[in-house]
Amino acid sequence: MISRDKMYSKLAQIVSIDFGDIVEGATIVEGKLRILLRDESFIDIWLSTKKKGVYAYHWERRNIDGTIYRFLKTFFHFFSEQSLLTKKFIRM
Predict the structure, then answer these.
(1) What pLDDT does residue 81 have?
(2) Which stretches in the chain have pLDDT values below 70?
(3) Strand partners, 16
(4) Who's near 85: CB < 8 A, 6+ residues apart?
(5) Domain that holds residue 9
């Protein structure tokens, strides 16, 4: 299994190449990948090290229009055999 930091490095390379017109740069900060956008907002991508397939996005635009967008994908386990896939997109 690929390490989280290696995955972040690969993602940083992809966004820099594929979205270079809007991406200023990318760096690993506090266990997440931070993508700096040219409009002075940023996107944080977090990947879980404990559960495969669990991740979150955070798009910080407070300095532009006061908004924050978050997306969380996770699994909740209940009744020991069933699992519920939950995806949440929140505008704050």
Answers:
(1) 45
(2) 1, 74-92
(3) none
(4) 73, 75
(5) 4-91
pLDDT at 18: 96
The domain tally of the chain equals: 1
Query: What's the confidence (pLDDT) of residue 35?
Result: 98
How deeply is 65 buried, as exposed, middle or buried, from its count of CB atoms within 10 A (0-12, 13-18, 19+)?
A: exposed
Which residue, 8, 6, 11, 12, is CA-closest to 24?
12
Residue by residue, what is the 3-state secondary structure of 4-63?
HHHHHHHHHHHHHHHCCCCEEEEEEECCEEEEEECCCCEEEEEECCCCCCCEEEEEEEHH
